[in-house]
Structure formats: structure tokens, C-alpha cells
Design a protein that fits this description.
Layout (H helix, E strand, L loop, with lengths): L9 H8 L3 H7 L3 H23 L6 H18 L11 H23 L9 H18 L5 H16 L3
Length: 162
């Protein structure tokens, strides 16, 4: 609901969930607290995706596909507007740590010859999340694994070594 209408009220969220708004307020003191819990749950899921992908030790192509598939699943499960996340210091610190880990992985992909070395790493680092986001939204008919196939193929054909 928040993905469709980021300004949705607690009353509307409660109605959609089939509970009274007082039930929501018993758990969350404010709308901001509810949003913080949603963002935290989303980042927990992204962190699990990074762990599952084994970006440091799995073969690069395998790790890339696992990571993309799991993040597409996270994006579909937690389709919230992300701009607000950047305002929360705790979430921003977690986001920065994840970005560093993925950037280290992409550097390894370049070093191992899977990605082109003649392009800035920042380009790959910016492009991959955008492709995952697009696949999450624009390819709903595909499973997360199938959407990941599309993203990985697009990513590697555009940035892959020749």
C-alpha cells in the first residue's frame, strides 16, 4: 500500500490490513515508527540476500545471479518508496555497508574478467540496482529467478568483458 501511496494514513493501512487503527498504534506509536519498522525489515531482507549470495567466496557468476534473484524478491516483497530511507542515519549506515560489499564484489568481477575494466566501477554499481528495480516492477509475469536471468544477461552483455 505504501508503494502505491507513500502518504497513506495509519487508518488506511489498518483498514487494508483488516485491523482497527488502534491495533496498529498499539504496536507503533506513530506513522514514522511504522515506516522505520518497514525499512528495517526491508534492509534485514537485503542483508540476508547479500549473505545468501556469498559475494566474497562464491564464483562471481553464481553469486551475481543469487544476489540479483534475492534482491528482486525483496523488492517485490517490500515495494516501498526508498527516498525516505536515506534520511535515517541508522538505515543509511546499513545501506553504505551493503554498497561497499557489493562494490567489492563488482571489483572482484572486474578482476576476474567477468566485467569490463574499461568502464568506471561506479557505473556498474549504479546500473545494477536500477536493473533489479526495473525487473521487479516491469517483469511481474516472471519469477524472481527468471527476472534475475534477464537482469544478469542485460548487465553482463552491457558491462561484461568481451
Amino acid at each position: 500500500m505504501l508503494a502505491v501511496d507513500p502518504a497513506a494514513s495509519i487508518a488506511a493501512i489498518a483498514a487494508e490490513a483488516g485491523v482497527d487503527r488502534r491495533t496498529v498504534y498499539r504496536r507503533f506509536a506513530s506513522r514514522e515508527e511504522l515506516l522505520a519498522a518497514i525499512y528495517e525489515a526491508r534492509y534485514d531482507a537485503v542483508e540476508r540476500a547479500v549473505e545468501h549470495a556469498r559475494l566474497r567466496e562464491a564464483p562471481v557468476a553464481v553469486a551475481l545471479h543469487r544476489y540479483v534473484e534475492d534482491v528482486i524478491d525483496v523488492n517485490r516483497t517490500w515495494p516501498v518508496e526508498l527516498t525516505r530511507l536515506r534520511a535515517d542515519d541508522a538505515i543509511q549506515a546499513r545501506r553504505d555497508a551493503l554498497i561497499r560489499e557489493v562494490d567489492d564484489f563488482l571489483r572482484r568481477a572486474v578482476d576476474e574478467g567477468l566485467l569490463r575494466a574499461d568502464l568506471p566501477l561506479s557505473w556498474a554499481s549504479s546500473l545494477l540496482p536500477q536493473l533489479m528495480h526495473l525487473a521487479s516492477q516491469e517483469l511481474p509475469e516472471l519469477s524472481a529467478a527468471q527476472a534475475a536471468d534477464t537482469v544478469v544477461d542485460t548487465f553482463l552483455r552491457g558491462l561484461g568483458s568481451r
